[in-house]
Design goal:
By secondary structure, the protein is mainly alpha-helical. It has two domains: 51 residues; 93 residues. Helix content is 72%, strand content 0%. α4 packs parallel to α6. The N and C termini lie far apart (45 Å).
Length: 186
C-alpha cells in the first residue's frame, strides 16, 4: 500500500512512479493469473448485451418502438445483471494500487479536457482558465477512483478496461479536433 491519497507525497511521488511502472513494455512477457482470467462467455455476453441495447435504442425511435424498447430494456437489464454477477462472484481480494486501471484514469482526464474544449468554444478566456483548472482536478479525482475501484468488477474488469482503452482513443481524437476549433477561434 502507498501513502494516503490525501497526502502530497501520494500525488507527487507515489502515483507518478505507479503510472510509470504500469506502462506497457514492448516485448515484455505479461504474467498470467487465474484470478484475472476471463472465459469466452465473460467477453461475449457483455458484447451481446450491448448489441441488443444498441439495436433496441435504434429501433425505439423508428417503425417498431415496442420492439425497440423491449430490446433496449433487455440489453440494459443484461448489462446490469452481468455487472452485479461479476461483483458478487469476484474473489474477495482488496483492491491494490498495483492493479490500477490506467485506461480509466486516462479516459476521465480526456473527458475533462474535452469538456473544457467544448466550453472554450463559447466562454471568454478568463472563465475558460478557471473552468479548465476545476475540470482537470475533477477528472483527476474521478480517474483515481475509477482506476482504483475497477478491480472490484471481477470478470467484467477486462471488458471494461478494453472499452475504456478504445474510448480513450476516440475521445482523444475528438479532443484534438476540438483543440483545433478552439485554436482557430482565438
Amino acid at each position: 500500500m502507498g501513502p494516503s491519497v490525501f497526502s502530497p507525497s501520494f500525488h507527487l511521488r507515489f502515483f507518478p512512479r505507479l503510472l510509470w511502472s504500469l506502462r506497457p513494455r514492448l516485448g515484455a512477457p505479461t504474467p498470467g493469473s487465474l484470478a484475472r482470467h476471463a472465459l469466452h462467455e465473460h467477453t461475449l455476453l457483455p458484447a451481446a448485451a450491448i448489441l441488443v441495447l444498441v439495436t433496441g435504442t435504434s429501433l425505439a425511435g423508428g417503425e417498431h418502438p415496442a420492439l425497440g424498447w423491449t430490446l433496449a430494456a433487455a440489453g440494459g437489464a443484461g448489462l446490469v445483471a452481468l455487472l452485479v454477477h461479476a461483483v458478487w462472484t469476484r474473489p474477495r481480494e482488496a483492491p491494490t494500487w498495483e492493479g490500477f486501471g490506467v485506461t480509466l484514469f486516462a479516459l476521465a482526464l480526456a473527458l475533462a479536457v474535452g469538456g473544457c474544449l467544448i466550453a472554450g468554444l463559447r466562454l471568454p478566456a478568463l472563465h475558460l482558465l478557471s473552468l479548465t483548472a476545476a475540470s482537470l482536478v475533477a477528472g483527476y479525482i474521478v480517474g483515481l477512483a475509477a482506476g482504483f475501484w475497477v478491480q472490484v468488477l471481477g470478470y467484467m474488469e477486462g471488458p471494461v478496461r478494453f472499452v475504456a482503452g478504445i474510448a480513450v482513443i476516440g475521445v482523444g481524437f475528438v479532443d484534438v479536433l476540438l483543440l483545433l476549433a478552439v485554436w482557430t477561434r482565438l
